[in-house]
Specification:
Elements lengths: L1 H29 L7 H23 L8 H17 L4 H23 L4 H20 L3 H4 L12 E2 L2 E2 L3 H22 L2 H18 L4 H27 L9 H14 L5 H20 L3 H15 L3 H25 L8
Antiparallel strand pairs: 1-2
Helix pairs in contact: 1-2, 1-7, 2-7, 2-9, 2-10, 2-11, 3-4, 3-5, 3-9, 4-9, 7-9, 8-9, 10-11, 10-13, 11-12
């Protein structure tokens, strides 16, 4: 019985990951057919990695951070600085940036995770803004100040220049690995503990569980996802704007998570695709695109707080219920009397 369940679970997971791989392969070809362009696929996957890691902290653990731009932008700057001054090789840039951001997430987690709710959110926002103003003025000699970090050479990986299809393939590989890791975390005993923290941290603490350790690990893992996304963005753009550290970057990933569906993993990734597609399509057609985007976000918060994923589940349940009702009506239909 248990062996059959495990076989079914492994088969289902393999089917899900196969579907994820197919979508990532086809995405650059699908977008031009619906009004987008191939390069948009790379940006979508970069933000999808960012949103996926953010959902581990918010969706699984229940901690809303408004300071994830510190991890995204900090990693982008470190990767860009490495590519510009040390080596154009992608591997050292990724390793150094992720390592530094991991240490940064340990420090910020130690300082912020002692608070909950709005106090935690405000603390993360404050620290992110500190990094933003450091990059803007005191450290402008290294960061470029208002102009951002420019002059980054074209990076290479295993002898291939990171341009167009090559950089998309690299980003897609990291996105695929990120989805696999996030799903393993969510389906593991560790993921269950994170959900328990979100449900009732006080009761879990009273039962003798070291809640602090679980929260810290969730914060670090989420920061690592943001670090990978930020470093890959620097590799893709060969430019790091100061706005990558601004609070608007954190706000955008929150919006993506809410639109897609918090706590669903795939939802924030879908939200990233929706937000970026709308930004590119609306900005090309109207100057009021920010207003329209804000109205769409408000509509999701008010009428569909569970996001697109919850809307899909509702439609599926409605269709299933109607099909079941139709079968029931056919089953009880009276038979004509024989003469």
């Amino acid at each position: 019985m248990i062996s059959g369940f495990r076989t079914q679970s492994v088969g289902r997971e393999a089917a899900v990951m196969t579907a994820v791989g197919i979508v990532m392969v086809l995405l650059p070809f699908i977008l031009p057919l619906i009004g987008g362009y191939q390069e948009l696929a790379t940006r979508i996957l970069l933000w999808a990695i960012f949103a996926l890691g953010f959902d581990i902290l918010l969706g699984l653990t229940g901690f809303l951070s408004f300071g994830h731009a510190a991890f995204w932008g900090g990693s982008a700057y470190i990767a860009g600085f490495t590519l510009l001054h040390l080596t154009p090789n992608v591997i050292p840039a990724l390793v150094i940036s992720v390592t530094v951001v991991t240490l940064m997430s340990v420090l910020l987690g130690y300082l912020t995770l002692r608070r909950h709710g709005i106090y935690f959110a405000v603390l993360t926002l404050a620290f992110a803004e500190m990094f933003y103003y450091l990059a803007l003025a005191p450290l402008q000699t290294w960061t470029g100040g208002d102009n951002g970090l420019t002059g980054i050479p074209t990076p290479y990986f295993l002898g291939f220049e990171m341009q167009e299809e090559n950089v998309y393939a690299l980003v897609a590989v990291f996105a695929f690995i990120g989805v696999y890791i996030a799903r393993r975390i969510a389906r593991s005993p560790y993921g269950l503990m994170l959900r328990a923290i979100k449900s009732n941290e006080t009761r879990l603490t009273a039962s003798g569980v070291d809640v602090w350790r679980y929260k810290m690990m969730a914060f670090i893992i989420s920061g690592n996802f943001a670090a990978v996304a930020g470093a890959l963005t620097a590799i893709y753009e060969t430019y790091v704007p100061t706005e990558s550290l601004h609070w608007t970057t954190s706000g955008e990933v929150v919006m993506m998570a809410v639109i897609g569906g918090v706590g669903t993993l795939f939802g924030p990734m879908l939200g990233a695709a929706i937000v970026l597609f709308l930004e590119n399509v609306l900005s090309a057609t109207t100057e009021l695109w920010l207003l329209i985007q804000g109205l769409i976000f408000m509509a999701f918060v008010i009428f569909l707080p569970g996001g697109v994923m919850d809307g899909g589940r509702r439609l599926y349940r409605l269709a299933t219920r109607r099909r079941h009702d139709d079968k029931g009506k056919i089953a009880v239909r009276p038979q004509p009397h024989e003469s």
